[in-house]
Amino acid sequence: MSKKTGFVLLSVISGILFGGAFAGNKLYDYAIKPRQRTDEDPDSSELVTRGRRWVRNHESKRDIYISSIDSLRLHASYIPGNDGEHHYVVLIHGIWDSSEGMGIYAQEYARKGWNILLPDLRGFGQSEGDYIGYGHDDRYDIIEWIYWIIKRDKDARILLHGTSMGAATTLLVTGESLPENVVCAISDSSYTSVKDEFEEVYEGLDKKIAAIPRWLAIPLLRFEVKVRAGYDIYKIRPIDAVKNSKTPTLFLHGDADEFVKPHMCRELFDAAACKKEFCMTLGAKHIEGVWIDSKKYWKKVDDFLSHNNF
């Protein structure tokens, strides 16, 4: 090989490595770095905004803090139910939001008189954390919150109700060994796996972010996440977790969801080993079912809870 040829080859390899590192860093910043929601960020529905205000201004709300297994300070809002009430719901929010975004759901459970726990997932709201885990670490954080409930009420009967990334976290939790106090779970618009979800949405990203082909981008992001956050995005697979679940689960989705495709809900439902129910809301985009057809949404939830003696 001549010196000129070697120089050209070295330049090409260097360019590929530099370009890959740059692309991986840009993808990491977009997909893995938490961004806090502000009051200027619009909600998809006025009902969500009202629920957010309801949580923020609730006169009985208490701020609760615990430590994660890796020593992060985690926050949740706790709204007590009726005196002597042993029903609890843990409401688990999605990406780019905080626990306040689950107020639209909290209002309904408050009407039932239940105790309500609204955790901020790590990196969001008042919880510490500098990366998004997509359920990887969050599952263990939620289990810590479950034991926080049980320590204060050994007779607690707990429902997990998550949306989007929070739904995936819910399913990942049900794949773990859980105390009998966890009676049911509701998954609203979960993805089957992080890898599948990233591949689904990548083509729709702005070309400034999605500047390289998908077959190269996702492995680059995987490498970047392993190095900087310490976990493997390919191993976050709710579809595997539900195969080990013993927790009765309601799977909800909107048939017009373009962010987490509806086929993922069906695949999760089919794979689940637990007692299960399924509901698709016509005309609902991503996590819109609760306000597009709230009557149908809450009737399905109530029927599911009744079927499981909750």
Automatic annotation (TrEMBL):
Residues 88-203 form the Serine aminopeptidase S33 domain. It holds the Pfam family Hydrolase_4. SUPFAM superfamilies: alpha/beta-Hydrolases (SSF53474). PANTHER family: ALPHA/BETA-HYDROLASE (PTHR43358), ALPHA_BETA HYDROLASE FOLD-1 DOMAIN-CONTAINING PROTEIN (PTHR43358:SF4). This is Serine aminopeptidase S33 domain-containing protein.
